[in-house]
Give the backbone structure.
Amino acid sequence: MRSKSHDDAAIRRVVLLGMGGFFAVALAVLAVLLRVYRDPAAATDAGSARPGPVREIAITAGEFTFEPASVEVAPGETVRFVVTNTGAIEHEFRLSTQHAIDAHLAAGHATDDHDTGMQGDDAPDPILIAPGETATFEWTFGDGSDVPDRIACLVPGHYEAGMKGVVEIAR
């Protein structure tokens, strides 16, 4: 018959081995997540086509304009908007459709929970940019009927003062 201390030692070894395996798996998962965070293209399936390069477009947000106020993109193109707020107050950068913007304005900004107003899970989330700050916003443009083709700041009064722009989808 084995002693109780011998059984306890065996149990400790099994537990430690199990914990070591757990930590090894956790580290592997963390490494994969960090790689995907740094390079979102790493998350694509090996059999699928890799996305093309990301084009950067610099946008300046001020009182009460976006510069440039018009940008051209191609269907399927991924664009990283680098938005700098040169104004003295907070601004928003959002991609949307005119229909969604009109609905938001008709509601008197009452739905201003920073929802895009577009349908579906793939609607872009707007970003808020503090004065003097720069934020990035990345989006891959599709070619469907509900493609965001407007730039807007829907902080109450800003859009009405002229803080809007157009995204021209090259066909």
About this structure: The domain at 54-169 is CATH 2.60.40.420 (Immunoglobulin-like). The first helix runs from residue 4 to 38.
